[in-house]
UniProtKB/TrEMBL annotation:
Domain Beta-lactamase-related: 36-261
The protein's name in its UniProt record: Unannotated protein
Length: 275
């Protein structure tokens, strides 16, 4: 079997100086492309790492999804799924919880601070101990906001993606809840894509649902979940196809992402599903 995908050649036309990819096919084999050791800031893909750590904290009893955090009626659950009523980066709530899906870095930062207080250790240390150490993510580090400032490389992200596809740190029941739409009827905006009604979100990851157009493949199932980042990064898991993909690049997500990513993801999905 070849250790590459022909679909990787599509990245040669991308307007980026750097791009690396890892795909996990339906047989669980990881196929990579590019410099897998180069570290970059993965932007909002960081939220998947933070969410995984948060749900570990839920399972070990450090926190609860029902813990109140922030304004009245807001809980850990609300913050994880962007239903807490906080703006993108403002410190004050702009609406009540469960009114809209308002994508919020602030909410994720509040969540991480809550974990830090309960665990009695800085959140970057908690993330390291809960996620990075057991998965042997030796190049992954949080250098600022837990919503956007994880630095990593494709080698580590491939290991993390494998964990998302076949979890070892969380129970099957917890992962089912992570990937189930929370407050499923909320409408909202996916930054850079547009407004969707509904705009499904899990406990951390964005859920594909019926969103269109979308950054994942047109043929990805509605059960596909993951995240993209503003530095030109994405990670998705399609549990129906049993395929996953992570890509790191070094150009901010603008029109180029929606121009190239869906076509690339479609080719990857097709190729990985055949193996």
């Amino acid at each position: 079997m070849t250790n590459t995908f022909s679909s990787f050649s599509l990245t040669t036309s991308w307007p980026v100086d750097f791009c690396a990819v890892a795909v996990i096919n339906r047989r669980g084999e990881t196929i990579t492309h590019g410099d897998t050791a180069k570290t970059v800031r993965i932007a909002s893909v960081s939220k998947l790492f933070t969410a995984w750590a948060a749900m570990i904290a839920v399972e070990d009893g450090t926190i609860s999804l029902a813990d109140p955090v922030g304004q009245e009626g807001c809980t850990v659950r609300h913050l994880l799924c962007h239903a807490g009523g906080y703006s993108f980066d403002g410190v004050n709530a702009i609406t009540s919880p469960e009114r809209k899906r308002i994508y919020s870095n602030t909410g994720i930062e509040m969540l991480a601070e809550h974990i830090a207080q309960r665990a009695e250790m800085p959140f970057d240390e908690y993330l390291h101990e809960a996620v990075c150490v057991p998965l042997n993510l030796t190049a992954t580090v949080l250098e600022g906001s837990p919503a956007k400032d994880v630095r990593s490389n494709v080698a580590d992200c491939a290991l993390f993606t494998a964990e998302l596809r076949r979890p070892t740190l969380l129970s099957r029941e917890t992962v089912r809840e992570i990937t189930t739409a929370q407050f499923p009827n909320l409408e909202g905006v996916v930054p850079g894509l547009g407004r969707f009604d509904p705009c499904p979100w899990g406990l951390g990851p964005e859920l594909r649902g019926t969103k269109a157009p979308h950054w994942t493949a047109p043929s990805n199932s509605g059960a596909t979940w993951g995240h993209f980042g503003g530095t030109g990064t994405f990670l998705w898991v399609d549990p129906v196809a049993d395929v996953a993909c992570v890509m790191l690049a070094n150009r901010d997500f603008t029109e180029w992402g929606m121009e190239y990513w869906p076509t690339f993801n479609e080719a990857v999905l097709h190729e990985a599903s055949q193996r």
